[in-house]
Amino acid sequence: MKPMRRVVTGHSPAGLSIVTHNGPPAKSVALPQIPGTVFHEIWSTASTPATVGNGPDPTEGPLLLPPPKGGTRVRIVDIPPDTEDFLRNGAQRMHDAFAGIGDSSASTVRADSPHPLMHRTESVDYGVVLSGAMTLVLDDGVVELQQGDVVVQRGTNHAWANRSGETCRMMFVLIDGQYDDGVTPAR
């Protein structure tokens, strides 16, 4: 995969626009439970409206799956192809992986789940396929995705299955959310 590059802007003491970072993201984390999966943390905000300033890089600190309460998170994820071993034995590793990224309750996998990566977060997520192909797995159905496709994932139970044989790179923008009173997600 092409190396990641992140360009962050800010303001000089005179108020001029400047580049404050131009290079790889400060944090790229490989998930040992899913060899080949790498989370590249791009940016996050802690509130809405977001604070605009020259504060510290919000991606430093522990890797966390969900966005901050009232905030956002942008990440790019390299997702390797599913393997037979992972499909057969991945459920327990996924519980451990979600716990390791700060959201053990996100994993919703059960014995009858359609994929061992089934999970849900109380957020609205925009997923963009940057390169490769991906399969969105839902409780009831799948959608094949190609480069340039965009998914608006609204707090639903889902998994990302890479059935293409090649690593897929996706960008995710996660926005903290709250379930509508009329929505009772099944577990």
Structural commentary:
This protein has 1 helix and 11 strands; from the N terminus they run βββββαββββββ. The chain has a single domain (29-176), classed as Jelly Rolls. It is mainly beta and 187 residues long. The chain has one helix at 84-100; strands at 6-11, 17-23, 27-30, 38-45, 72-79, 123-131, 133-138, 141-146, 150-154, 158-161, 168-176. It is globular. A hairpin with a 2-residue loop joins strand 7 (133-138) and strand 8.
Residue stretches low in confidence (pLDDT < 50, at least 5 long) are none
* Count, helices: 1
Instruction: Give me the CATH fold name.
Output: Jelly Rolls
**Helix- and strand-based class?**
mainly beta
User: In CATH terms, what is the architecture?
Assistant: Sandwich
Order of helices and strands: EEEEEHEEEEEE
Number of strands: 11
Mean of the pLDDT scores?
92
Strand neighbour order, sheet with most strands? 3-4-5-11-6-9
Q: What share of residues is helical?
A: under 10%
Question: At the fourth CATH level, what is the homologous superfamily?
Answer: Jelly Rolls
Gross morphology: globular
Radius of gyration: 17 Å
Largest sheet: 6 strands, antiparallel
Number of domains: 1
How far is the N terminus from the C terminus? 35 Å
Q: Which CATH class is shown? A: Mainly Beta
Q: What percentage of amino acids are in beta strands?
A: 35-45%
